[in-house]
# Entry
Amino acid sequence: MPRVGCFISNKEFFLKIFVNGEPKQVADTCSVQDLLAEMEIVGQRLAVEVNEEIVSKSRHADYSFKDGDKVEIVHAIGGG
Amino acid sequence: MQDDKLIIADKAYNSRLLVGTGKYKDLDETRDAIEASGAEIVTVAIRRTNIGQNPDEPNLLDVISPDKYTILPNTAGCYTAKDAVRTCQLARELLNGHDLVKLEVLGDQKTLYPNMVDTIEAAEVLIKDGFKVMVYTSDDPIIAKRLEEMGCVAVMPLAGLIGSGLGICNPHNIRLIIENANVPILVDAGVGTASDAAIAMELGCDAVLMNTAIAGAKNPVLMASAMKKAIEAGREAFLAGRMPKKAYASASSPIDGTFF
# Structure
């Protein structure tokens, strides 16, 4: 199965993960980088953690999700 | 005054005004106000990206570039040491290893008063993890000293509640904290207008951090400029040393040579 399209409907190969609190179905081969590509936010200034552990930028391509992973993608916004 | 630098974590800054980026109308106003303030250190908050919402919308850090400004990520909104530590770790990843952070752990939604027990707990973890911690604190001189001894690179007592604009509510405590300090002391929170900033600097603060006093003004860009001048004026007045106060008048013109 090609590693394109993180958000798929093929029920044989999906994982359920939570991205910023929202449930998402993704391909079982989906990496952090694939997810960011799907969300069209590759290359933006952001940080990713999975299950409260940082996934550094150098690991985005290699890190594949497991069922039930809780993913947080954050960026900087205005604040004091 | 060229040599009068603010030194935080071994880095020298010309401006003694630090500003936040919250509550502005839009990113253009944010950029213009920060430019007018002359600030070199700028705080940001760390939040979830808005999934599926305007991926083309400019990012704050495209407007306030880390190449131009020292970005100071905060832990605003954190009510536990754990959340604050996690926020700092995400901020360091976001900013490619930049490890200067503003630690604040809040205790109460109504006052946003700092929870010092969790603040100290978070500071310990962060310092051990290599962070350079600028810490928001209550104006308790004993706590302030403790935070310095732990290794915080700057101690930042509130002068009034966050966003209140109440001014320097307890100048005596701020003075006590400054007297005992060996790290920069910054008033963080409470400033409402330019004279408040000048008072903080006249007390001997090393710098002032503000957000709402600028963003909440009718004309934020003009207020940013006013704050820049107030900080400079207050600093110069502090260095100059004010005249002693007297209970009675003292004529400025000589008595000798009067012809009447």
